[in-house]
Hints:
Number of helices: 9
Largest sheet: 22 strands, antiparallel, barrel
Oligomer: single chain
Strand content: over 45%
CATH superfamily of the largest domain: TonB-dependent receptor, beta-barrel domain
Number of strands: 50
Mean pLDDT: 85
Low-confidence stretches: 9-24
Helix content: under 10%
Shape: globular
Number of domains: 2
CATH architecture of the largest domain: Beta Barrel
Amino acid sequence: xxxxxxxxxxxxxxxxxxxxxxxxxxxxxxxxxxxxxxxxxxxxxxxxxxxxxxxxxxxxxxxxxxxxxxxxxxxxxxxxxxxxxxxxxxxxxxxxxxxxxxxxxxxxxxxxxxxxxxxxxxxxxxxxxxxxxxxxxxxxxxxxxxxxxxxxxxxxxxxxxxxxxxxxxxxxxxxxxxxxxxxxxxxxxxxxxxxxxxxxxxxxxxxxxxxxxxxxxxxxxxxxxxxxxxxxxxxxxxxxxxxxxxxxxxxxxxxxxxxxxxxxxxxxxxxxxxxxxxxxxxxxxxxxxxxxxxxxxxxxxxxxxxxxxxxxxxxxxxxxxxxxxxxxxxxxxxxxxxxxxxxxxxxxxxxxxxxxxxxxxxxxxxxxxxxxxxxxxxxxxxxxxxxxxxxxxxxxxxxxxxxxxxxxxxxxxxxxxxxxxxxxxxxxxxxxxxxxxxxxxxxxxxxxxxxxxxxxxxxxxxxxxxxxxxxxxxxxxxxxxxxxxxxxxxxxxxxxxxxxxxxxxxxxxxxxxxxxxxxxxxxxxxxxxxxxxxxxxxxxxxxxxxxxxxxxxxxxxxxxxxxxxxxxxxxxxxxxxxxxxxxxxxxxxxxxxxxxxxxxxxxxxxxxxxxxxxxxxxxxxxxxxxxxxxxxxxxxxxxxxxxxxxxxxxxxxxxxxxxxxxxxxxxxxxxxxxxxxxxxxxxxxxxxxxxxxxxxxxxxxxxxxxxxxxxxxxxxxxxxxxxxxxxxxxxxxxxxxxxxxxxxxxxxxxxxxxxxxxxxxxxxxxxxxxxxxxxxxxxxxxxxxxxxxxxxxxxxxxxxxxxxxxxxxxxxxxxxxxxxxxxxxxxxxxxxxxxxxxxxxxxxxxxxxxxxxxxxxxxxxxxxxxxxxxxxxxxxxxxxxxxxxxxxxxxxxxxxxxxxxxxxxxxxxxxxxxxxxxxxxxxxxxxxxxxxx
Length: 933
């Protein structure tokens, strides 16, 4: 397939860049923070040696020193903190050094203590220090680690975090809890659900190249939103730069079962390669509203039906091009005469991929294990991701103002060709489906940080934000043909009930404001902190859908025409087909919600070793939803709830290496608009429908955590934790008792209660303890083990609640991440090998006693990725080779017929849906052009 013109231009630009000179003097850049992760503004940084000089860190703790090529030593000193000396900082001619993240510890004695460290150790230590000193128990990944993984977006990155996994390639599962029990923060703003059919934020819309760091808070503190149970995921995009630079990265990926193979689809819009449908899939302008259309005569409906794109069902076959990714990032800092500075980062990200799942297995079985239907399909998945980030930060004295913007457009189209043997209907079924999904995320934040008192360190931080989450499904097309199984040579004929066109549009607007006053004070010569703050978040959601099917106009209509001729305009007439409206009253809803909160939090040092973070958060939640039921009766949900959410976090640090943590808190999980809306949607890809429940109640969660942490040396950590959670009214997606073999139905409902217990181990350790020859190797690993039980609202004859021997919806019994990273700064060489595995996860809750179908589990799979990279062209360029998903294990979902979660055919387990994604080999090249400040 020929590449779009813009991509060819990018390649031309890349080779032009390779010949461009570098216009930059050498610099040492960095940031100084405290052990409590606070920026240490005013820190004195002294450059030792013949060209000795001293600079001061700015409000953010950042500094920059111009130097010549060579090795340098820096001394960092700040009042109340231990002096630190960094040695062997190597600077090469024309190349700015990697950013240094320097951590200063508080003085605990009157004796002067000087700590010596290396630049390499100090830079790798920043995220570990944050995790060590964060008020909440947390896990995270920094940008330098993310760059050494093959991950392309935030959802890929998140599966590397301890206790986290990814569902459907985009939804995060933390500590085995489904996506609806997790919350997303982009910088300092809450993100609403991005999905029309679930409460979840789709993390695949944020490219990994735009991330500065990711933090998952696993325990609650009063200054964090109180609506989560698994984790609060904070995605922070890149901030003020220390370099004036243009970076260009281009990569090409080869997928083992897709690239250069025949890729089948319908005709696509000429703008689809940019992530936008150009209007080819839009509902015809001549289509009136539902009521009006239903009142038209057949002749009038035929006239309007002709306006639908009848050629949309025709197939075209191209060659799948390599997966193409282009990223350009421009960073600049302008320093003014009054010592003020303006930093900007503008990044453009583009990815285009054509992936084939060439042997997808489908099956559905009775409780007796007799097949209802079985067969196979080929899926052709086309996707485009176009993202733009523009962040601007102004710093002067004790004031910092940031304006952060993220725009991301995702276009996905899946064309599938399915053949099933339906035993129940005695039919052979041929289904072609084209599912397009267009998502747009807009996020803008204006943020301020003000040092109100330099001597006392009083700060005020505020954030005003707005976002738009849009998702459209334009012209979701299905064409189903059937024939009798007993007459295999007979022609296929149209199944008009399942030959449909679906259009939906979701608009979700949110606007918020939050502010925090930070007041340090002393008690018994120990530093204390009080935080007081509040926030408001207002959301509007408007969703509407229209459903149509093809209906024969007359009884004698010819229904045996091929799929690519059946729906053409020439067959829309009195002897052929017309479009019939199938839209239900429930296919539209409108919702408004407001969340107002306030909190008071104390961070108290009771001794040099004992730290207590305590306080409470009050949240007032209002939610209104309006829709109609099938009888056209107006349905309104109007909820008002106060929640008082106390929390306590205690840290006892025996010394600088060992500490224990204890946390207890109350949190909640509220229903999303979709979960309370009566709208029902049938997914022809998954072959099931989903509906909401207007009586759904919020979930209350009581959380207890205990963790031991050991920090052997800079950049290393070993931790062991246990936790338990008690859920009241947990929300689950459960099978409806009215489901049958051809149409499963699921709805959101409350269980009575649930209990989760778990343990997790996390290790980051240099391998130099084995041999000094392995000093450049680091082991990274984490393991989480979980178990839960669920009580339902149904009762037995004795009156006791029913306890099911199954986990919570979406939970895995274990999660494993392991890997080695190799870094040789002198040679500019990096390598990593990363392994990921999750235990069999409860994907869908069945109804074996009612509808007669077992729970559906997702099978365990092994994921192994390898990446190597090498700096070239005087460290301005970098080549990178990545091999991802080497084992290419199946993604498999199966009926779990016994009490054990693992797949066992002998025990009656049967595959419901399975596919292989293929192994992908990617080659990329990036180049930095540095400019003078």
